[in-house]
């Protein structure tokens, strides 16, 4: 993910870098339902937003950088005046156990993040996700990713502090067709794509 700009000019973003994992540094946040998160994530897939660490996508959901953390920032509807990246997404989220993952949560490493879309099998060993991966790709939906490989590779599950859970919430269906993780992994390292 792209790191932020310095805060020396009035037009610069607020820039915070925190260690991986839970942090005491907290930034203000809004509130959003899981349905809204998934709807926003799917919109970038539909719009075929290309990956970029330097370009910003402008649509009805706002203006966000077109990389992995910009994608999560957009899906979570984070403050557009703060430069969120992999080094500070944990200032508006907290670590959870992988068994607690729900659609709209993320898996975050020091260099990449993906938006958890749901479990792909009853044993909860495979999952589906949304991501902006690397130059030359568009926002995409990936299926049948092994959770163990992500955890071994240094990804930690996080939950947005502003997510609103409702017991009666009917989540939207994920795209009918996704890219198969194992096929993508043959072409590049999907666990460290940037």
Shape designation: globular
SS elements, strand count: 11
Major beta-sheet overview: 7 strands, mixed
Strand order of the largest sheet: 4-9-5-6-7-8-11
Beta-strand content estimate: 15-25%
Rounded to an integer in angstroms, the radius of gyration calculated over CA atoms is 15 Å
**What structural class should be given to the helix and strand makeup?**
alpha+beta
Q: Which residues form runs of ≥5 with pLDDT under 50?
A: 1-12
**H/E element string?**
EHEEHEEEEEHEEEH
- How many angstroms separate the termini? 7 Å
How many alpha or pi helices? Answer: 4
Average pLDDT across residues? 89
Helix content: 10-25%
Descriptive account of the structure:
With 194 residues, this protein is of the alpha+beta class. The chain has 4 helices and 11 strands. Strands 4-9-5-6-7-8-11 form a 7-stranded mixed β-sheet. Strands 1-10 form a two-stranded parallel ribbon. A two-stranded antiparallel ribbon has the order 2-3. Helix 1 (34-47) crosses helix 2 (68-75). The relative contact order is 0.21. Residues 1-12 have low confidence and may be disordered.
